[in-house]
């Protein structure tokens, strides 16, 4: 028997204890051990029941990710689940920690399930671009009903034990040692002569409006197909005998396994974890972090302060005037009120955070004891330099001085202090207490332990942290400026902002670029265009039609008018009729005859511009690896997760095809569409961006 399963006997109950730390993933050795353990129990004279439980932190956290992408090894999970369920012995699962994916599917094959109150269960396979493939879509609806099963499977959410009890997923919730509780429950069942109760033999769930449900799930997923496909699997559980339903589940599972979306989501899953794993930080201890200073209490500063407070840090926030300080305090309190309503904190915690943990001041001397300070003031170098001069004077030795700048040169900011080694960029995304991305911008003189501290802070705040070098816009905003420019060019050449927004949301983006501009504020782009104007390349095409709107004081959502018009009390906006006239005037001025664009061409140009600039960013070392770009775009810019990121998208399309399109566009605008040297090199060598991700970092 596998050393991953410990076999013991307590009276007429055999116990199979899974021992595969840290979370009892369902490796081949675990699967084989469970199969062998069932056979041993059935051959063990006098054994009437089997109790399955996990050692350590979890029952079974799911599949063994080290086996992803490798040929399947027997026993496969569907066969193991059938084997467990068919046992003539009474089988009980005692669940603690998490039981996810295959872990829950194993538990569903037991005849009875007991869980700790803190346990969580779920079938999160849709987040990998697949669906539960070991009977989960067939067994769960027999316990919960079709509607609840669809919701659980298509969202992949974690379900807490009390809710799982209400849904019928578990039979009892009880506090205690999982083995002791499980043995007592199993003995109780034996004493009551409880029957074997195979979920597969239970009545099928009643049907629902499957087509409407499929359409609703597909729409909610913005083009992701795995949740909608899972609806069809649950439908099979309702309409077919169990054995045929299992075959249908397997058929749908294999269809998804062969999709590009599955490749993209697996890429995202692994690299979300890999992006913060930097060899340069191995053995480098971060500086101690207990209290954090924040300069500026606007939307961004208040969001950063909120994130820090919710993560257990003391916060000192600095504003210029008392009235601004009061507004900042209210803004943070409002953010925390949202956390209170969502159940992330209780009333006592809310009261403590707002009255004790948070300090709001107008005096920089209040920062004398903080361990790290983040500047989140107006995006202007003269303002940043003034703030950092004050921080240099007020903050203790060893305090990390961080700028939340979106574009500006962190080296120049560091140079205005007496301690450039302590200076780093920490670029948060708004709202900072919600958005997961953190760009850690490493300047020329940033000390290694300061870099480690930036990543440690990101981890503490629950962020996906990406290392970036210094350039205008770093990774994300530099690439954004380019693909947004590609959209602007298409507008001048004949596409409308509204066609572009729709084509890109249909592709899977959370929002189109013009709706995003309205949300962020049109004044940001306007200010950037003015800042860059003195150094602009003579061949650069820069549309200025939207500047006319900014000159009239219209900056998007915050003023009620931008590319769209926004009415109070109404969600979203309607196309602004002024935009067409502004575009037409500029087309006439430039002598452009507008032409039609297909949605497919819009998406292709937009994506090729993104990939080409991203290849330049990687080639220059601003991003160390293509995966750094992918995670930046996924977590900060609404890129559809099921494509894995722009570099993974390009690999899926084929780099020679992407390069060929870029070279064809270059015939119209050679300066903007100049192919990235790295892209040309990889295409000529028959290599991919994914190949670069496998190379060791230097």
UniProtKB/TrEMBL annotation:
<keyword id="KW-0560">Oxidoreductase</keyword>
<keyword id="KW-0276">Fatty acid metabolism</keyword>
<comment type="similarity">
    <text>Belongs to the enoyl-CoA hydratase/isomerase family.</text>
</comment>
<dbReference type="InterPro" id="IPR008927">
    <property type="entry name" value="6-PGluconate_DH-like_C_sf"/>
</dbReference>
<feature type="domain" description="3-hydroxyacyl-CoA dehydrogenase C-terminal">
    <location>
        <begin position="473"/>
        <end position="566"/>
    </location>
</feature>
<keyword id="KW-0413">Isomerase</keyword>
<dbReference type="GO" id="GO:0016853">
    <property type="term" value="F:isomerase activity"/>
</dbReference>
<dbReference type="InterPro" id="IPR001753">
    <property type="entry name" value="Enoyl-CoA_hydra/iso"/>
</dbReference>
<keyword id="KW-0511">Multifunctional enzyme</keyword>
<comment type="pathway">
    <text>Lipid metabolism; fatty acid beta-oxidation.</text>
</comment>
<dbReference type="Pfam" id="PF00725">
    <property type="entry name" value="3HCDH"/>
</dbReference>
<keyword id="KW-0443">Lipid metabolism</keyword>
<dbReference type="GO" id="GO:0003857">
    <property type="term" value="F:(3S)-3-hydroxyacyl-CoA dehydrogenase (NAD+) activity"/>
</dbReference>
<feature type="domain" description="3-hydroxyacyl-CoA dehydrogenase C-terminal">
    <location>
        <begin position="602"/>
        <end position="687"/>
    </location>
</feature>
<keyword id="KW-0576">Peroxisome</keyword>
<dbReference type="InterPro" id="IPR036291">
    <property type="entry name" value="NAD(P)-bd_dom_sf"/>
</dbReference>
<dbReference type="InterPro" id="IPR006176">
    <property type="entry name" value="3-OHacyl-CoA_DH_NAD-bd"/>
</dbReference>
<keyword id="KW-0456">Lyase</keyword>
<dbReference type="GO" id="GO:0004300">
    <property type="term" value="F:enoyl-CoA hydratase activity"/>
</dbReference>
<dbReference type="Pfam" id="PF00378">
    <property type="entry name" value="ECH_1"/>
</dbReference>
<dbReference type="InterPro" id="IPR029045">
    <property type="entry name" value="ClpP/crotonase-like_dom_sf"/>
</dbReference>
<dbReference type="GO" id="GO:0006635">
    <property type="term" value="P:fatty acid beta-oxidation"/>
</dbReference>
<feature type="domain" description="3-hydroxyacyl-CoA dehydrogenase NAD binding">
    <location>
        <begin position="292"/>
        <end position="468"/>
    </location>
</feature>
<comment type="similarity">
    <text>In the N-terminal section; belongs to the enoyl-CoA hydratase/isomerase family.</text>
</comment>
<keyword id="KW-0442">Lipid degradation</keyword>
<dbReference type="Pfam" id="PF02737">
    <property type="entry name" value="3HCDH_N"/>
</dbReference>
<protein>
    <submittedName>
        <fullName>3-hydroxyacyl-CoA dehydrogenase</fullName>
    </submittedName>
</protein>
<dbReference type="GO" id="GO:0070403">
    <property type="term" value="F:NAD+ binding"/>
</dbReference>
<keyword id="KW-0520">NAD</keyword>
<dbReference type="InterPro" id="IPR006108">
    <property type="entry name" value="3HC_DH_C"/>
</dbReference>
<dbReference type="InterPro" id="IPR018376">
    <property type="entry name" value="Enoyl-CoA_hyd/isom_CS"/>
</dbReference>
């Amino acid at each position: 028997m596998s050393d991953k399963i410990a076999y013991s006997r307590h009276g007429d109950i055999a116990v199979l204890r899974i021992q595969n730390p840290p979370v009892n993933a369902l490796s081949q050795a675990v699967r084989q051990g469970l199969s062998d353990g069932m056979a041993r129990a059935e051959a063990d004279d006098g054994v009437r029941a089997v109790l399955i439980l996990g050692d350590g932190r979890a029952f079974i956290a799911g599949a063994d990710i080290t086996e992803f992408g490798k040929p399947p090894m027997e026993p496969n999970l569907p066969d193991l689940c059938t084997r467990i369920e068919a046992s003539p012995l009474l089988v009980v699962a005692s669940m603690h920690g998490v039981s996810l994916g295959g872990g829950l599917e194993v538990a569903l094959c037991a005849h009875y399930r007991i869980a700790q109150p803190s346990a969580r269960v779920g079938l999160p396979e849709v987040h990998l671009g697949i669906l539960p493939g070991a009977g989960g879509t067939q067994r769960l609806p027999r316990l919960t009903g079709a509607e609840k099963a669809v919701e659980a499977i298509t969202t992949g959410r974690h379900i807490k034990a009390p809710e799982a009890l209400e849904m019928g997923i578990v039979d009892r919730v009880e506090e205690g040692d999982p083995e002791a509780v499980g043995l007592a429950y199993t003995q109780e069942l034996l004493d009551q002569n409880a029957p074997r109760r195979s979920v597969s033999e239970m009545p099928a769930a009643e049907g629902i409006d499957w087509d409407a449900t499929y359409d609703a799930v597909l729409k909610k997923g913005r083009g992701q197909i795995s949740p909608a496909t899972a609806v069809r699997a649950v439908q099979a559980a309702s309409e077919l005998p169990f054995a045929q339903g299992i075959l249908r589940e397997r058929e749908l599972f294999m269809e998804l396994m062969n999709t590009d979306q599955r490749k993209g989501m697996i890429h995202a899953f692994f690299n979300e974890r890999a992006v913060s794993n930097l060899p340069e930080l191995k053995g480098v201890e971060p500086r101690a972090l207990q209290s954090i200073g924040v300069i500026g209490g606007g939307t961004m500063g208040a969001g950063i302060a909120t994130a820090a407070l919710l993560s257990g840090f003391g916060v000192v926030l600095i504003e210029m005037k008392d009235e601004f300080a009061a507004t900042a305090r209210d803004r943070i309190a409002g953010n925390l009120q949202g956390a209170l309503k969502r159940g992330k904190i209780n009333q006592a915690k809310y009261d403590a955070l707002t009255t004790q943990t948070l300090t709001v001041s107008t005096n920089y001397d209040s920062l004398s004891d903080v361990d790290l300070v983040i500047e989140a003031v107006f995006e202007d170098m003269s303002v940043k330099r003034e703030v950092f001069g004050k921080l240099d004077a007020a903050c203790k030795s060893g305090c990390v001085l961080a700028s939340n700048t979106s574009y500006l040169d962190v080296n120049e900011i560091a140079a205005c202090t007496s301690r450039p080694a302590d200076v780093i960029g920490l670029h948060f995304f708004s709202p900072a207490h919600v958005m997961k991305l953190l760009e850690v911008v490493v300047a020329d003189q940033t000390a290694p332990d300061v870099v480690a501290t930036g990543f440690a802070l990101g981890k503490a705040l629950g962020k996906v942290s990406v290392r970036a070098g210094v350039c205008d816009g770093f990774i994300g905003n530099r690439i954004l400026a380019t693909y947004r420019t590609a959209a602007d060019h298409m507008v001048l050449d004949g596409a409308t902002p509204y066609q572009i927004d729709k084509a890109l949301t249909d592709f899977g983006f959370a929002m189109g670029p013009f709706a995003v501009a309205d949300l962020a504020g049109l004044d940001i782009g306007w200010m950037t265009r003015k800042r860059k104007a003195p150094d602009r390349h003579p061949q650069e095409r820069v549309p200025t039609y939207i500047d006319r709107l900014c000159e009239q004081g219209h900056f998007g959502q915050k003023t009620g008018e931008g590319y769209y018009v926004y009415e109070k009390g109404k969600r979203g906006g309607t196309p602004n009729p002024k935009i067409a006239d502004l575009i037409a005037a500029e087309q006439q001025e430039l002598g452009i005859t507008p032409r039609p664009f297909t949605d497919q061409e819009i998406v292709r140009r937009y994506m090729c511009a993104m990939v080409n600039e991203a290849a330049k960013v990687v080639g220059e070392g601003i991003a160390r690896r293509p995966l750094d770009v992918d995670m930046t775009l996924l977590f900060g810019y609404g890129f559809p997760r099921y494509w894995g990121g722009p570099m993974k998208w390009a690999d899926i399309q084929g780099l020679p095809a992407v390069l060929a399109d870029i070279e064809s566009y270059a015939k119209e605008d050679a300066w903007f569409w100049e192919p990235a040297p790295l892209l040309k090199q990889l295409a000529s060598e028959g290599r991919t961006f994914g190949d670069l991700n496998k190379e060791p970092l230097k």
